[in-house]
Design a protein that fits this description.
68% helix, two-stranded antiparallel ribbon, 6 helices, mainly alpha, 3 domains
Length: 267
Amino acid sequence: MNTLDQRITSALTSDITSTDLATIIGEVEAAIVEAAKTAATVREQALDPILMPDPNKARAATEAASFNVARLKATLPRLKQRHREIETAEHVASWEADCDRVEVMRDAAAKKFAKYPELVAQIVDLLRDAEQVDKEVWRVNISAPSGPYRHLVAVECAARGIPAFSSSEPQISKGVQLPDYERSTQMAWPVRRPPDFSVIPAMVPHPGADWASEHRKRAEAIQCEHERTIAYYENMAKERAEREERAMSGAHVDVIGAMVCKPAGTP
């Protein structure tokens, strides 16, 4: 087995892992403690002429013990510096490998993310179609004749299989926000529309002292418009019913005529 001095020399001059070098540093630190104890014992013995009657040998033993401690102590900082360098190099190598691995993952994810404009365009078309169809659904629902007729739910409700939106099942499309790919400060959805000034109520001058009369006139006008709307949709329903009745009567007459015109013996 190599001596500690040989292992120290190899650690300072050859390739070694930080783990193995840390082990040698631990051995050196333990050796310094033991060498210091030995040096103290040798010094005491060297001062005793009975134990060491030859002063030259006593001095040599003391110097050797002290030199061994000093040598180990001088070696320890170099070993620790070497350990820091190797540990740094190992960290860099590990980090480079990890960075390469994550870079491959990043590039793959970036390739997928580059499809964002295409996916946003599909979602915007989906939301726009749903918005347009919902307008037709609303129109059909409000024009339905009185009675137990069907009521169509919104596009999203039909897709999600829910009867209506609620606090527990809020509307998804209402909260969708999709930034534009090229100009992320702008929104691809919801689409910004110019203000419709036609829905802004006009400024109405104060009616003056006869405000009650003006209020009554406006209420009567609103009531008339409401009755006119109801009459309009009732008339639509009546005309549809008449058309269906005429269509059914015509089909009945055609069937009877066909039966009358059949030659005798025709099945």
